[in-house]
Each structure stands twice: as structure tokens, then as C-alpha cells.
Amino acid sequence: MANKRDYYEVLGVDKNATEDDIKRAYRRKAKECHPDLHPDDKEAEARFKELNEANEVLSDANKRARYDQFGFEDPMAGMGGGGNPFGGFDFGGMGGMGDIFDQLFGGGMGGGTRRQGPQQGNDLRYELKITFEEAAHGCEKSFEFYRNENCTTCNGSGAKPGTSPVTCQTCKGTGQIRTSGGWMTTVRTCPTCGGAGKVIQDKCTSCGGTGRTRVKRTANIKVPAGIDNGQTIIMNGQGEPGLRGGPNGDLYISVSVKPHKLFRREGYNLRLDLPISFTQAALGGDVDIPTLTGPVKYRIPEGTQNDTEFRLKGYGIQQLRGTQKGDLIVRVRVEIPKKLTDKQRDLLRQFDETTTGKEYEQRKGFFDKVKELFN
Length: 375
Prior knowledge:
Among the domains are: about 1-85, DnaJ domain (Helix Hairpins, Orthogonal Bundle), CATH 1.10.287; about 265-375, HSP40/DNAj peptide-binding domain (Sandwich). The chain is built from ten helices and 15 strands. It has helices at about 5-10, 20-30, 40-60, 60-70, 100-105, 110-115, 130-135, 280-285, 340-355, 360-375; strands at about 125-130, 140-150, 165, 175-180, 185-190, 200, 210-225, 230-235, 250-255, 265, 270-275, 285-290, 295-300, 310, 330-335. The relative contact order is 0.10.
């Protein structure tokens, strides 16, 4: 336990933080280290797990109380959810089963109050396709997306203008139906009003009583240089509006990068296969190597072998939220011509007749090993 950080420290709140303070802190920090934003980052993954553990305890009143009293040495921790035999469910309310029914049936003691309170809007997802160059250099993009918003005709009430929702007669406005049976009281969501406590008699014709209409919106986003395929950008507050005064959800933009015709990305490095003739490989010489910023002259040394790799420093991808760049790794592919003229064949034969065998290090080494093997 000594290696664990204090849960309040993990969330960045003090011990007097309210439930809303804890929710906001968790939400903010979860976005900073979410695995979608940091693929293959084990450190971010560990921080995210630590954050979830802290939130699970501090967002639960009973678990938080035990943590405040005992810290990590909670004597009831091994029994689950306060030491009751149901492991993970808490008894709450007067003579009822409390949160166990809230979790199993969507009701629970006081569940109607939570249902009728402010509720955050739904998050949205959008796939943004960009080119390889746009991902490497960064860009600004504009795109359209749809989201459900409060109906402008009824202002989100769902009722026909000039009318208002009325108190549900089934649950008398509580949003809950309670059934007692001996020592046990079950609580479930009112089937008539869906837990809202009110029903709409005259529905708005624009939204059909839902209070929401589908609206097309345009978003402008700045894509940072160095972003990779599959990473996510979050636009806070651009999701759907909340219910009953709750905050908007967020818009999660998943970036899809189109493959390049020449380059392959490996982290912040780029790889390129460069075909050269066997004459260039033997004699060496200057070649033009393509990069993301234009061709660069590079001298191929004499006697370059097939699959030899050269590294061009700083010609890779810019680091995300940084200024340094990776490298361009060029692999030489020596191409042998498939068709030769008679003159070319004669010249090659003359060349071969003038060689002593020492020019071919690998071949000489191979045949030396063959001799040793059979002698």
C-alpha cells in the first residue's frame, strides 16, 4: 500500500471536495491520459487506471467515508461494499434494499431524484480523414456533423407551445413506483413518465414530444502536426446538450490518416525504399532522395550493397506537442536489369573476366567456408 498515491492527490482535489467537484476533476484528468489519446503509452495507461480507482472510491459516499477513516487499510475492504454479504451492493434507505435495486432495476432509494436532476449530454464521435502530409505538418479542417439539440419550437419541453407538461398521476411526480412486500421494498422507474415525474398531454409538432430535433452543425478544428492514425482529438462541449440544465457532452474526433505512396511511418520516423541501378551501387554517386519537404541530394558510397540503410536526421515526422522531428530511414534496393542488349552482355563478360574474385567479399567468404567444410 505504501506505493499508492492518496486518492485526493490523484484527482487533484482537497478532502472537502463536493461530489460535483470530484466528477469534474475526474472528467478533466481522464481526458488528459485517456488511452485513445496516448496509444502504446504504458505510463498514460497506468495513470488512467489509477484515476479510475480513485474515482471509484471517492465518488461513492460509503467507500469515501471508509477511505477517509481508514485510508488504504480499510478492515472491510475484503468484504466488498461495506462488508455486507452481497459484496459490492450497499443497503440504503429505511427498511429497503437501497442501491441494490438501483443497480439491478434502475430504481433505488432516491433514484428518482437523481433521474430528475441535471444530466450531461451524450458524447459524439466523428471520423476525420486526412492525408499523410496533413498529419505530418498539421492542418485546419472544417467538417459537418449532426447532433440532437433542444427543439426551438418548444424550447426543449416537448410540449405544444402555450402548454406545459403536467404531473404524472401514476407516480404523483416522484418518477418512481414503490412496492412493499414484508420487510423488503422494491423501487422501479415509473413506466408512465419514464422517471421524469411529468407527462406531456399536448406534444410539440416539431419534435413529436421528445424535446429534441436533429441539427446539422459545422466544426472547425486545428489538427496538430505529428498526429497519427487512430488518435483522437476531443472538442469539449461540442456534443449534445445536457438534460435539465446539464452540461453539453463532448465531440470525439477519431483521426484516419490515408497511407502514403512512398513513405511508411514508424513512430516519428519515416521509411523509404530507394531503387538504384547496380552500376550506381558499384560506382556510387549522387541521388535525389524524396522527403516530405522536397528532394534532398545524397551521395551513395561506392560498393553499396542491397538492403543497406541510410539515415537522414530530422527528415521524419514532427513530435506531437513538440518541435523535434524523427528521421528518414532509406533502404537501398539494387535493381538488376532483366533485359540486356548484346553489347551490354559483352561488356559485362569483359568486366567479369577482369575480376579476381577479391572484389566480392561475401562470395569469397562463402567459398572459403565451403573449402574448409570439405577439406
